[in-house]
Amino acid sequence: MASKMPPPRFVRSVLKSFMAESGLEPRHKYDAHANKLRITNAAESKVDFELRITKDHTNRLQILHGGTIASMVDFGGSLAVASMGLYATGVSTDLNVTYLGSGGKVGDIIKATAVCDKIGKTLAYTTVTFWNQNGELAARGSHTKFVAKAWEASPLFTPPDGAEIADKVD
């Protein structure tokens, strides 16, 4: 079995798994190899990340699409759960987004902070807050996840055998 990791490396390892195994993240929205999405900080219960906006992320007005933000609430909530030590991050039961201003346009960077507000035996509650390139609040979201089976997957902060492990430095 892999050894226990500090939260930043563990969360980056979960991100690598999302990129390799998920249907949404590896496509254009979260292509880490193109440096579009980047985790900038991770600690227990909190993950900061940013996305460089490309045309793939925009609507017909050429600004960040609300669906991209909604996907990032889902994705960010999962990373917040991972920051609590769960490699398996559960399944969504509820997701809400409030749009407060423009997230940006192509070339801009939108920044986000995902927080695991509470985690129990069956549910995890997360919030994700977004700021545009000018530091203005752009959106906030909440994401509830069913995590009962996730607790059984592996010991806290320990990836399962065979998991791809993130480098120590991003």
TrEMBL record:
Domain Thioesterase: 62-138
InterPro entries per record: ACOT13 (IPR039298), HotDog_dom_sf (IPR029069), Thioestr_dom (IPR006683)
The organism's place on the tree of life at top rank: Eukaryota
Molecular function terms from GO: fatty acyl-CoA hydrolase activity
Gene3D superfamilies per record: Hotdog Thioesterase (3.10.129.10)
Family (UniProt): Belongs to the thioesterase PaaI family.
Protein name, per record: Thioesterase/thiol ester dehydrase-isomerase
Protein's organism: Trichocladium antarcticum
